[in-house]
TrEMBL record:
Residues 254-314 form the CBS domain. Keywords: ATP-binding, CBS domain, Nucleotide-binding, Transport. Belongs to the ABC transporter superfamily. GO terms for biological process: quaternary ammonium group transport. This is Osmoprotectant transport system ATP-binding protein. It comes from Paracoccus versutus. Pfam families: ABC_tran (PF00005), CBS (PF00571). SMART domains: AAA. Residues 2-236 form the ABC transporter domain. The keyword Manganese does not apply. One of its GO terms (molecular function) is ATP hydrolysis activity.
Length: 314
């Protein structure tokens, strides 16, 4: 767990992070979203001490990061930035191994870990490992950046606009990869983005930051259903709130007993996807299956519409 206590950073007498207190639960992804200059990057960098706080502190699993030696901090916290910050004269494999090398791991262990990470990120070690950054596509370079951050098996991963430079299709794929890897590894992630859609898609919790403070901090559903201030409402968007809410909830939450015709929908799919399928195929109920294709019941259009109506009108 990451605990932030009255965390403050002042530049030239002006607070850019202003007394923020919050807890990010272990194994969750917290998305910090807000406009440019609101203090997101500064807050993130105080977690790994790239920026020293002017006041307040950060605890990771109860330990004050100000007292954690730099080597342990590097091992315990991965960091991914927009543009990936790969060393241009090093191969992808050597870039991935940089922290283990600093930590003095034996060569054979670094090589094995590099291969494992390349496989996990669906890159061929023989093909991609020896390439230099300029020989990689944007999506590949982004994955190498993530592999490098994960190399020393950190408990915490900090990501600053990690998908900012990717085109929309690759970006969605990278977001899916992150969700998959996170489930696999149980890493606690804090991700900075200016894109509310990305925050809603990825976050277990969302912190909306403005002028150095958290204007609202809570689960995505609360942010969409009950924006605390006009600023949050503005970020969420005036229109389409019901559909956003449906995009956050899986089909499994509205499961009923019964029979339905036609192609089934996965219980993990979103209610908005199920509704789209109903509209497209002209059905008012769909069979629901689990990840292995076992029938679980049905989901009905009326139930989905009722769930969407829980969003207050914009
Ligand atoms: N080293 C520094 N010295 C002086 N001012 C700084 C420094 N670093 C950041 N700032 C200022 O602090 C404010 C917050 O910056 P920060 O980078 O944390 O915002 P951000 O929300 O991440 O913005 P963006 O989305 O544009 O990256 C800005 O006004 C910025 O100019």
């Amino acid at each position: 767990m990451i605990e932030i206590e009255a965390l403050t950073k002042t530049y030239g007498g002006r607070p850019v992070v202003d007394g923020v207190t919050a807890r990010f639960a272990r194994g969750t992804l917290t998305a910090i979203v807000g406009s440019s200059g609101s203090g997101k990057t500064t807050l993130l960098r105080m977690i790994n001490r790239l920026v020293e706080p002017s006041a307040g502190r950060v605890l990771i699993d109860g330990k004050d990061v100000a007292r954690i030696p730099e080597v342990s901090l590097r091992q315990g916290i991965g960091y991914v930035i927009q543009g990936y910050g790969l060393f241009p004269h090093w191969t992808a494999a050597r870039n991935i191994g940089v922290v283990p090398t600093l930590l003095g791991w034996p060569r054979s262990r670094i090589k094995a870990r590099t291969q494992e990470l390349l496989h996990m990120l669906q890159l061929d070690p023989a093909e991609i490992g020896p390439r230099y950054p300029h020989q990689l596509s944007g999506g590949q370079a982004q994955r190498i950046g993530v592999a490098r951050a994960l190399a020393a098996r950190p408990e915490v991963l900090l990501m600053d606009e990690p998908f900012g430079a990717l085109d929309p299709l690759i970006r969605r794929q990278a977001q899916r990869d992150l969700t998959r890897i996170r489930r696999q590894l149980g890493t606690t992630v804090v991700l900075v983005t200016h894109d509310m859609n990305e925050a809603l898609y990825l976050g277990d919790a969302i912190a909306v930051m403005r002028d150095g403070r958290f204007e609202q901090f809570g689960p995505p559903e609360d942010i969409v259903r009950a924006p605390a201030t006009p600023f949050v409402a503005d970020l969420v968007g005036e229109t389409g709130r019901a559909l956003r809410l449906l995009a956050l909830k899986p089909v499994g939450t509205l499961l009923r007993a019964g029979q339905a015709q036609g192609d089934p929908v996965d219980a993990a799919a979103s209610l908005s996807d199920a509704l789209a399928e109903m509209i497209w195929t002209g059905r008012d109920r769909l069979p629901v299956v689990d990840g292995r294709g076992q029938g679980l019941g049905i989901v009905t259009r009326d139930d989905i519409l009722a769930a969407g109506r829980q969003a207050p009108p914009a």
